[in-house]
C-alpha cells in the first residue's frame, strides 16, 4: 500500500496548525508576554507540557527507548476512562513494557514529563474540550488517566453532548471530547432518483456549517483542541456512498472530489473558529498521525503489531 498523499495535505495541516499557534493567546499564568507559551499534543506522546520557548520546534526530534523507571506510564489498567477494546493494558497486549518505554525527545527543547497536579492547578476552574475524530478521543482517554493521578475522585462526565469526558472535582476542571469526525455538519441522504446509478445514497456535507456536536458548546471551554483527517478517505466514503459538498444550502458545482472537499472544509472551519470562538479561548489544531494497520486496513482485520515507532519510510498518511 504505497502512500498516496494529496500534495496539498501536509501543507494545509501545517498551515492550520501555524494559524492557531499564531492566533492563540496564552491562558497559563506563568507565561510572560515576551515568550510564547505553547501546549502541544503530538501524535503519540501522552504528555502535554508547557515549555517556554521562542524558537523551539517540538515536532523535530526522535523517539528514544528509555528503560528507566521515569519512562513508565503514570496510570495502569485500573483507570476507569479507557475504551474497553482499546485498553491495551487490561487486554494484555504483548510487550507493553517495551512500548511504554518509548519517549519523544525534541531536538532542541526540553519536554518534561507532565505533572498532573501542577497542570490541574494551573487549569483550576477551567474546561478543556477536544473536538474531532478518534485520534482526539484516544488522546483524551490517555490524558484523563494521567490527570486522574492528581484527583482520584475524578468522575465520568458526558454532558453538553460530549461523547466522553471527566470532571475533576478537586480542581473544578472538566476535560471532554465531542465527536465530529469531519468537523463540518454531515448527514446521510438515502437514494433519490436524481442520484447517480450505483449510489446507495450520499453523505451531504455542509462545508460552512460546523457539526452540532460542537458548534453550540464552545463557550463552555477555555481551551479547545481540534482535529480531523483519517475520515477523509475512500475507505470511509466509497463511491456508492460518497460525500457531496454543499455551501449556503446549495450543492457546490462542479462537485468537489474528496480531497478538494477536505481542503474547503478545513478552510471554512478554521475561518468559523477564528470568527466565532472568543479570542480568550486557547485553540489548538492537532496534527495527523500516520496509519499503522498491518495485514489489512482498519476494517479488514488489520492490526497494529509493532513495538516500535514507524520509520520515516514506513509511514503511510492516507488511503
Ligand atoms: C467551577 O468552574 C466554573 C467555570 O468553569 C465556574 O463558573 C464555577 O463557579 C466554579 N465552581 C466553583 C465551586 O468554584
Ligand atoms: C476477518 O477475519 C474473519 C475471521 O477470521 C473472517 O471471517 C473474515 O472474512 C476476515 N475479513 C477480512 C476482510 O479479511
Defining key terms:
319 residues, 4-stranded mixed β-sheet, 6-stranded mixed β-sheet, TBL_N, TBL_C, transmembrane, 20% helix, single chain, binds 2-acetamido-2-deoxy-beta-D-glucopyranose, O-acetyltransferase activity
Report on the architecture of this protein:
This protein has a six-stranded mixed sheet with strand order 6-7-8-5-11-14. The protein has a four-stranded mixed sheet with strand order 9-10-12-13. The protein has 319 residues and is an alpha/beta fold. It has one domain (8-32, 39-314). Helix 1 (8-23) packs parallel to helix 6. The protein has helices at 8-23, 96-99, 116-122, 134-148, 212-215, 258-276; strands at 36-39, 50-53, 61-65, 102-106, 127-132, 155-156, 164-168, 173-179, 184-190, 201-210, 223-226, 243-247, 250-251, 282-285. The protein is built from six helices and 14 strands. Strand 12 (243-247) and strand 13 (250-251) form a beta hairpin. Residues 1-51 have low confidence and may be disordered. It is globular, with a radius of gyration of 20 Å. The protein binds 2-acetamido-2-deoxy-beta-D-glucopyranose (NAG) (2 copies). One 2-acetamido-2-deoxy-beta-D-glucopyranose binds at residues 296, 300-301. Residues 125-127, 172 line the site of one 2-acetamido-2-deoxy-beta-D-glucopyranose. Belongs to the PC-esterase family. TBL subfamily. One of its GO terms (cellular component) is membrane.
